[in-house]
Amino acid sequence: MCVQNELGTGDKKGVVRAKLPSSMSWAQVAESCSAGRKLMVISGAVYDVEEWVQKHPGGKVLLTYVGEEASDPVAAFHRDKQQLQKYLAPLRVAELDEQRDTDSAAALQAKNTRNTELEKDFRDLRSKLEEAGMFQPKM
To answer: Can you give the pTM of this predicted structure?
Structure first.
């Protein structure tokens, strides 16, 4: 569990990391990840998933999207949006402010690292699973 204070974020081991701003650009996300933070962007919000990796049912697959936009893969594999929000809420550290990323090379790299074909595949997979009734609870 992380604790926010005026100095930054401390984990159970007492390690203090720099406090993040409440609004981050893609360049800031990339810079923080380069410095060792485990941040990902989901639906316009920045999440620090470092503490969650050990508890995540999919394990370290979560780290595949560190520093990147992860909305599509998250949607493809998490059917219960209320439960998802319950787990994501404490991990939320900032809002993404794409307006501040006009021509930054780091911003372009962070935004474009994930293959758009893969994102399309996630959307198609989600659609097919929904059509097959895979997200309907069995009573």
So the answer is: 0.68
